Amino acid sequence: MANNNNPRIVFFSGGTALNGLAAELAAINRECSYIITTFDSGGSSALLRDLFDMPAVGDVRNRLLALADKASPERENIVRLLSTRLPDSRAISVPMEELLRLSTGTHPLMAGISDVTREILADRFSLFLDLAGDRFNPSGASLGNIILAAGFMAHQRVMAPPIAQFARLIRAGGTVRAATVDNGHLAVRLQNGDILAGQHLFTGKEIEPIHSPIAGMWICSGVNDPWPQAVHASSLALMLIENADLIIYPMGSFYSSILAALSPRGMGAAVAANPCPKIFIPNLGHDPELLEHDLELQVERLVEIIRLDTGAFTEREKILSGILIDSNRGHYPGGTGAELLKKLPVKVIDRNLISDQSEELLDPGLLAAEIMSLAEDG
């Protein structure tokens, strides 16, 4: 049964779009949980994945830092360290020297951190150097990602313990779980027939945006192998879903964040089995992944990804209760005309979610208040 003061709210996400909302909710309800995709195949995450054959940790690190309690100077210093990237230098010796100083606890970023915590962090950096040897180019690498990767290896390739340790270091105001502990990648089929294996190929962030709409997505073995691979949902993530009072499919990169976090086997079945409300909060503005996707098609694809796990005849009501929008001030792909809203097969919850200060994006404060209201009302 829901605790009206602290309802258990579960978000499926990844990336940075939810960070403002997550920080807002951390201050008012620490029972919020975030199930995060681990399929990123670009940047320094790709190098770590290749090095240790592991899931991507960048989105996990990003969300944890958004939830950090920086009330004390020490935790502020810890957050600063874990948010830092090593110098992006052609001379590998430059970032390597930084890593060596971090591994001995003598780096300036360690100033203002207690001896105990400094030793914990230094040990992790030292372990990383021992494991990576000369196989990893640290230029531009995230220190938070390195700490999580070293923890993953220290705990016999299990993700939960390093996430929990990271969360304790920064007193995260919420729970973060990886969607899966398996190592997989994302592949999409475009409407023109092209198949792209690797998230970085279709997000529009590292290379040119796609020019044909996404027609389908699945989990594959690797960036050189688009053949489908069975990837299973984390048992810890499934427990969060089972106990949720409200499930949110929030704004964010539609395929590579939201649908990706829902894709591991068992995730859809767990969502459908919980009778709590499930709300979709669509993106405002431009998402390169949503080429030619209006709200109706987004709802269809969201329901479809769950039914891939539960079966084609799963009632829509078990998957999605409503869609939360601001039709007055929001600019959504395909618009929010009366005819389109009538065609949506779910309840439309139309609220004031955009402020003058939020610059045509969802205002974290307004959205947090609305989500809490929905959770308390059930």
Order of helices and strands: EHEHHHHHHHEEEEEHEHHEHEHEH
Q: Classify the secondary structure makeup into a structural class.
A: alpha/beta
In percent terms, what proportion of residues is strand? 5-15%
Mean pLDDT: 95
Envelope shape: globular
What is the CA–CA distance across the termini?
10 Å
How many DSSP helices?
14
Number of strands: 11
Report Rg: 21 Å
What's the main sheet like? Answer: 7 strands, parallel
Question: Strand arrangement, largest sheet?
Answer: 3-2-1-8-9-10-11
Amount of helix: 25-40%
Low-confidence stretches: none
Architecture overview:
By secondary structure, this protein is of the alpha/beta class. Helices cover 40% and strands 13% of the residues. Strands 3-2-1-8-9-10-11 form a seven-stranded parallel sheet, with helices on both faces. A four-stranded antiparallel sheet has the order 5-4-6-7, with helices on one face. The longest helix is centred in the N-terminal third of the chain and has 18 residues, at 115-132. 47% of the residues are buried.
Layout of secondary structure:
Layout: E1 9-13, H1 19-26, E2 32-36, H2 43-52, H3 58-66, H4 73-83, H5 93-103, H6 115-132, H7 143-154, H8 160-170, E3 175-178, E4 185-190, E5 195-197, E6 214-222, E7 225-228, H9 235-242, E8 246-249, H10 254-262, H11 267-273, E9 278-280, H12 295-310, E10 322-325, H13 338-343, E11 347-350, H14 364-377
Parallel strand pairs: 1-2, 1-8, 2-3, 8-9, 9-10, 10-11
Antiparallel strand pairs: 4-5, 4-6, 6-7
Helix pairs in contact: 1-14, 3-8, 5-6, 6-7, 7-8, 9-11, 11-12
